[in-house]
Amino acid sequence: MVATRRQSGKLLPPLTAPSTGDVETSDEEDPFGGYESSTDESDSSDDDFAVKRAGRKGRPAAKRAKTSDTPSKMTTKSKNKGKDLSRIVDMPLDVLFEIFGCLLPNDLLNLTRTNKMLRATLMSKQAVTVWNAVLKGRNAPKCPEDFSEPRWAYLLFGGNVCHTCGAKGIRRVDFGLRRRACASCLKEKLVVASKFGTRFPDYEPIVLDLLLYTNTGGWAHGYASNSKFYWVDDIYDMATELGKYQKDVNLRKRGAKQALDDFKNSRIEFVAANFANAQKCYKWASARAKILEEEKKERINQRYQAVEAHLLRLGHLKIDMRSLQNCSAVNKDAELTDLSWSRMRATVEAEVNKHKVERIARERKSLIDSRKRVVKDVYSAYKKELVPIQWAYHPKDEHVYNFEGIAALINDPSASNIEASHYREALEKLPSPIEAFNEGQRALLLSLVTRKDNSSDISNDIAGKAGRTCLDLATSVFRCSTVGCQLRERPLIGCQRAICHSCDVHRGQCYGYHYGFSHLQRDTLTPAFTFSDRGSTAVESLAVLLAMDAREAVPADYDRKAARFVCLNCALLSRAGIHGREALTWRDCVAHFIDARYRKNHDSPNWKLLTHDETMDIKRREQSQRDPADYDEAWSCNHCSTYFDNFARRESVIQHLKNIHGNTNPSEGVDFFYDQRRGRTPRVPVRFGTPTAIAAKSKDPHRCLRCGGSREFTLQGVTDHLKAKHKITDPVIGRDMQKI
């Protein structure tokens, strides 16, 4: 590596380093195509390694007057000490090669681009050991025989650049074609074997057998297939090369035919060997990608740990730093320097402080929730001592949390749990705040009540009978307007029913609303009520038919009548073997008129009161059907607190009364009850009208014995037939009818 001089005795002028564009050399101008001759070293000089000093042509800069007597601490010579690399050429080659062999492949490739002398040295055949050592250090696949080591290193580690167009970010190497290519170039340059004849009709198919190929097409997004794809430029080059051999054969040159056969055989063997080697290279590339990913994660983790160490020194807690793993300033593949830390410190500390506030809020919420659980347990124990039917008239747990004495304990600023005895002392005074709460609810409902009869002398508070207020009347009909409440379409008749109402909101349904579950949950704590004018009007119209005073009648008065009605506004329909209308209870009538507010001919209520016999017939048919409310898990025993937290079905509660309390004939409302906080599942109304013809074949055929004919009925049909034609209201099987 001794630098030579020109014949004039002057050294060559210093060379500037190649531009970064040299890195993106296309495959057709491969900078590492092979080894360079050692004679090129004669064109280099020691100045190739020297640091180029910037200056300007023409007149030198004017000297400045010295303004201080203090000598400079460092002369120009001492400033440049250690930066002049020109003497590196004096080092022995074996020492240089030993140093270069410790570099990474991409660093060694970049070193060949620094100046001509280093390039000539590294591209010479003497540097083969350097390239082999570097490639072996990265467990790279063995270099093919037709490739030089520098070119092989360039293919494997030469940057993520397309060899054709120079596009960046191309990580995948197509080892079948021995090139890096972007998606655009692959789509433009690749030719599938099935379309070779169409695109190149003048070429013989034997050309494809002599070419390198890949199984990954331009539209495959990196996924291999069973098809073979060829590089279009290789097709043209191979056709030209094959044409030369064929021309010699046509000219009948000696040995031309043998040369052509040897060329084809060698190319076929070469293609097969390259395909086998490509499969090994793909496995290596996949393993290397995993290693690089692990190394990247390790570097990111080291950066995170460095940031964490800085924050710990600043007094932050490690628990507040967990979110930094998602912070873009921290989750970066770059070494953390003092400069980068100074730039990102404000952002990182703001993120840590934000999560510190959130952590404190979570811890505070967890503490408050634990206190609420204690209150709930104590409050539940208090309610279990009451008559079970009174549970519905007590505020929900969420309301109790806001009671004055309880709220002070729950929101105590201390960070410790409060003993349950303190809550018991506060809950001993519960009757007063509960009564005040219910009075507040009644006052709220009272403000919603609107009296239509303005000429009435009855006050808004007293409805007539002693102890009854207008809220107790059946005409006080409310509806829940809470968003998401499953019972918002059902009327709440009387203030007691409204006070007991609990919004039934399913959790899965809450996520459908744009403002989220938490907003709906807050709404369900205090239901939003509205007064139903249509419901009140319906009750007043029913009172007229029942000869009752709507200004005095309460819901229990209507229940005792147990009357049945039909809506004359509804059209006559033929269903379930009856041509008529639905038979409704008075509560069903109120719900029906409210639901029919958008239906035709339902502007005002128009009912028909069924006669006693008609009502008894309807009730008999109702009793033949199972009440769907019996299957609701909303029943409880009224003698114990067994079903306090887990209401059961009616049958289970009745069995409990028989087994535990010895009550063989329990009565609803006295021995057991339906939870008033829930909406009772309504019955399917039976129909009132004229029986229609029944299909000849039915699932449960019966025959009328009074007629003696062969006509078949359903059980319900033959019962109605006997009543309508033979005036038999209580038919007996075997005497009046027969099951077929």
Unreliable spans: 1-29, 37-58, 65-78, 452-464, 507-524
Biggest sheet: strand arrangement: 6-5-7
Q: Count every helix, treating DSSP H or I runs of 4 or more residues as helices.
A: 25
Strand content: 5-15%
Q: What Rg do the Cα atoms give?
A: 48 Å
Structural class category: mainly alpha
Q: What does the oligomeric state look like here?
A: single chain
Which sheet architecture does the biggest sheet show? 3 strands, antiparallel
Morphology call: elongated
Number of strands: 17
> Which whole number gives the mean pLDDT?
81
Summarize the amount of helix as a percent range: 40-55%
Distance between the ends: 118 Å
Summarize the structure.
The protein is mainly α and 740 residues long.
Question: Can you walk me through this structure?
Answer:
The chain has 740 residues and is mainly alpha-helical. Among the domains are: 1-48 and 84-159, no CATH class; 693-739, no CATH class. It is built from 25 helices and 17 strands. Strand 9 (573-575) and strand 10 form a beta hairpin. The protein has a three-stranded antiparallel β-sheet. Helices cover 41% and strands 7% of the residues. Mean pLDDT is 81; it is low at 1-29, 37-58, 65-78, 452-464 and 507-524.
